Amino acid sequence: MAVVRVPSGAVLRLVLQTGVDSEGNPVYRNRNLTNLRTDAQDQDLFDVAQALAGLQEYALSAIHHIKNDRLIQA
């Protein structure tokens, strides 16, 4: 039987470095934007993440685009 992948949403995750721990290792915090359009362009998401990072107190460490899909039997 064939299986079909159906896009069911996406998340834009901003990883912010909030400081360092007692051993000097970086400490990170995630900010998630949910319910993104599944057809959003990567460049647009990157631009939005950069703009939002400018409003944050902490430094932006990484940007993740997480796509969620459902697998259904065709």
Question: Concise description?
Answer:
This protein has 74 residues and is an alpha+beta fold. It has one helix spanning 42-53; strands at 3-20, 26-33, 59-73.
Describe the structure.
- The protein is α+β, with helices and mostly antiparallel strands and 74 residues long.
- It has one domain (3-73).
- The chain contains 1 helix and 3 strands, in the order E-E-H-E.
- The chain has one helix spanning 42-53, and strands at residues 3-20, 26-33, 59-73.
- A 3-stranded antiparallel sheet has the order 2-1-3, covered by helices on one side.
- A hairpin with a 5-residue loop joins strand 1 (3-20) and strand 2.
- The longest helix has 12 residues, at 42-53.
- The N and C termini lie close together (7 Å).
- 3% of the residues are buried.
- The mean pLDDT is 95.
Draw up the topology in text.
Blueprint: E1 3-20, E2 26-33, H1 42-53, E3 59-73
Antiparallel strand pairs: 1-2, 1-3
Domain count, please report it.
1
Give the overall pLDDT as a whole number.
Answer: 95
* Unreliable stretches: none
Q: Give me the strand/helix succession.
A: EEHE
Number of strands: 3
Helix content: 10-25%
Q: Strand pairing plus helix content: what structural class?
A: alpha+beta
Which features characterize this protein?
74 residues; alpha+beta; three-stranded antiparallel β-sheet; 3 strands; elongated
